[in-house]
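Quick one before lunch.
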Amino acid sequence: MYLDMDDAPASNFLQTIISEDLAAGRVSEVVTRFPPEPNGYLHVGHAKSISVNFGLAEANGGRCNLRFDDTNPEKESQEFIESIQEDIRWLGYRWDGEPRYASSYFQQLYDWAEHLVRNGDAYVCDLDADQAREYRGTLTEAGRNSPYRERSVEENLDLLARMKAGEFDEGAKVLRAKIDMASPNMNLRDPILYRIRKVRHHQTGNDWVIYPTYDFAHGQEDAIEGITHSICTLEFEDHRPLYDWLLEHLPVSCRPRQYEFGRLNPSYTVTSKRKLKQLVDQGVVAGWDDPRMPTIAGMRRRGYTPAAIRRFCDMIGTTRSDGVVDVAMLEFAIREDLNENAPRGMCVLNPLKVVLTDYPEDKVEELSAPRHPSRVDLGERVLPFTRELFIDADDFREEANKKYKRLVLGKRVRLRNAWVIEADEVVRDDSGQIVEVRAHTVPGTLGENPADGVKPRGVIQWVSASHGRRAEVRLYDRLFNDEAPDKGDKDFLDHLNPESLRVVEQAWIEPALAQARPEDSYQFEREGYFVADRYDHSTDTPVFNRTIGLRDSWSD
Ligand code: ATP
Ligand code: MG
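Model of the adenosine-5'-triphosphate complex:
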């Protein structure tokens, strides 16, 4: 994949609209909002929405509100409210003032519902769900008026108050806007404004037994908060006429506008909260923040950085079409960030002992190596070199042709940042497995080529057996092995990658890596980028998660 990193962020049609509004004086300050429903953790699609809403406010000297769209108490919880705030802050965005809640506007919304009733713009309807569906008609056939549509204002006011007082059962009555049952836009066929739901709300407790629908809540909340540009995803395009109708029929003091952009759908990923919840509930992953999850908390634990996620959101642009974005672009963004910023270290994932027979048993050479090949500001690290070392078992063969650039019996290899060694013999266990390679150092090869002109075949990583540390390394890969795991009638659970996690319990790391603090990222040389686990890592029990390999192993 070719990407020109010098390109300005991809064009953003929303910025064009905002610039025109500011130039024409239609708005004096840009106010946006990010309106998550607290019914799950935020995912990579929300990161896009956050970067659009907070980003546009930032770029135009405006403000962005965080508003919990908490009108469906059954599926919502305080856990989600907290995780959402933490994730937004971690991404580096700050909302204006305190977080806001749709639920704190319930009284105002109710007053406005009465206003509509008084003006003959809303009525209480007793049709049950099945009947209502029948009356609604279809895309090709007009609906029919509800038999309750012509109730008097007095009767409607009385019934609405009694709905609010809890006199009726769930489903017995709803409040509907009186618009047009023949409208070609189904959303205008007398949409529901209020439902009876006798459930406790996480913010308002038992104060309410009727709850507003998304349509009745959203635009009105935007108006209360003085939102100028209400940005949402394309599935709300057909709701815009209703959004406008409600604002036109209510005594609101400001007139927000809704704009839609295409959802972010990365390949090899599902972003439906319902499906993510299923992965958690069925134990397919260890939780919402499992490093394989496309949640912000999961990406964080995997070692993705806020800079890389923001970079990715810029790179893909903001358009008016729903398309699939190659997840390799996200991986590209994190590799680019970590290549530039992550210190290097050595880790041996599949340890094979090497004993240097010419090297004294108690000798320790404190070699030093740069933490980063081009970032001198990151300084140097100490690498203790000793008689017994570990190399990766894949880096040794008894015999091999010249293409194998690692250690071979009778041949030489350079230990990275250290000596050139030559392998002499192998030691086997009772089953014939090689358990040790005996070798010797080639004199004068610290930072120099061998004087006899016999060059090493390649360079491999190593860790001192006496000074290195054991570590648990969790090798994560994509959760799904299908490009579009939930497309059409596919069941996403049929496309799980069986190799999305392999745990190496006894890897060896150089001592400097044990000093990592949780969430520090490194490049393990020749292996990939890894992060010290946010929860499980400590200097005594090092645990690292693979963020991403050095190269894309999925593309051909
Ligand atoms: P669900 O998955 O339950 O339908 P949702 O993804 O719409 O919910 P919300 O909490 O309502 O979740 O989303 C908050 C905001 O994030 C909304 O403005 C929504 O349009 C936006 N958003 C959600 N998913 C994406 C996505 N994949 N790409 C871009 N924006 C998104
Ligand atoms: Mg939604």
